[in-house]
Design brief:
Blueprint lengths: L5 H13 L2 E2 H7 L5 H13 L3 E5 L7 E5 L1 H19 L1 H19 L2
């Protein structure tokens, strides 16, 4: 199951919040993801049953992605964790700064 990867959780969240989206629309909402990684992650999530891919068989190609009921179940469980992460973002920044300052101090010894 690939739902625990960095990009998977973001894609599930995006489809859960914004609804059915085309590939390019998902990409626009996933800052930093490469085209290759997006395509790969979407395929993995589809294989796991967390998202659904609908190919309309048109020219030019039109494909849409949506979250499945299984994906919605995961999203509901993810929300408290995401809320906690957002609430503690400043704590993470402070800890990183403290860690980096210690690392910089020991590097010169």
């Amino acid at each position: 199951m690939h739902a625990g990867s960095r990009w998977s959780l973001g894609i599930i969240h995006t489809l859960g919040v914004y609804g059915t989206l085309r590939h390019a629309d998902v990409a626009r909402r996933m800052t930093g993801i490469t085209q290759r990684m997006l395509t790969r992650t979407l395929r993995q999530l589809e294989r796991d049953g967390l998202i659904c891919r609908q190919d309309f068989g048109e020219v030019p190609p039109r494909v849409e992605y949506s979250i499945t009921p299984l994906g919605k179940d995961l999203l509901v469980l993810m929300i408290p964790m995401w809320t906690w992460v957002v609430q503690h973002a400043e704590d993470f920044r402070s800890c990183r700064q403290e860690f980096d300052a210690k690392a910089d101090g020991t590097a010169s010894l």
